[in-house]
Amino acid sequence: MPPVITGFDYRRVPVAEGVSLNVAVAGSGSPIVLLHGFPQTHLMWRHVAADLAADHTVICPDLRGYGASDKPAETGPDVYAKRTMAADVVALARALGHERFALAGHDRGALVAFRAGLDHPATITHLACLDVLPTLDMWEAMHGVTAAVGFHLYLMAQPPGLPERMIAASADAFFGHFLDVWTGDPGAVPADVRAAYLDACRDAVPSIVADYRASAGVDVEHDRADREAGNRLRMPVTVLQQDWGAALGYDAAALWGAWASDLRHATVTHGHFMAEEAPAEVAAALRDLLTR
Prior knowledge:
Elements: E1 9-16, E2 19-26, E3 31-35, H1 46-52, E4 57-61, H2 82-95, E5 101-106, H3 108-119, E6 124-130, H4 135-141, H5 151-156, H6 162-169, H7 171-181, H8 191-202, H9 205-214, H10 218-229, E7 237-241, H11 244-248, H12 252-257, E8 263-267, H13 274-277, H14 279-290
Helix pairs in contact: 1-14, 2-3, 7-8
């Protein structure tokens, strides 16, 4: 059996036709949903979730296409659009009895959270995004040889077929690469959790690639439409991220400030997997957000 978040109840919740999400739930009080990133599952939140569950209802799903959640076939660009995945999250919370909730996401989950904030402003009360830029800004910031750090973005942006075959042929090496090079503290991802991440990713190559492919297509279209319409995040927003701007030549706080009026942006010194490397700091930032 894969590891679980101790003290959390697990269930499967239908969120769309033919799609159910695996979700861990615990605590009571105002709800917060925590969305994981790549190449992970909901387990990345295990420390932060346990902290927050002392006085909040904490909901930790595996995103569609990841972990133990359903992995529908990529029959069109919308199947793994962040708009679709955000709608999954809203449906999940509603099924659990919450019409309004706070939302925090890391990496891929942060892109889903960002889209949920724009598409469902009356539903998302507070928003936190960890170690990403919005999709449109991300592509505009990537240029020259410094963009090599994001080689996986370009690989998985390719049409169906080749990227899936290449990644599946060496799945553990591919996904393990990111767990190794993005971790500031290797001890933060113990062997059993690392194995669970690799097992989950190995079984989800087509859907993970489809998620990334959407971010080179339909997700960009959605972000561009919101930018042109002047749509902004209306709720309090917290962003924690590494200083990628120094390496890639952009002002991360300014880019986020164009999307959010009530913004607290902080640059951290931890590795990418900050919820596992510095859970107390992340939990404190989320608690601060929830007071705004």
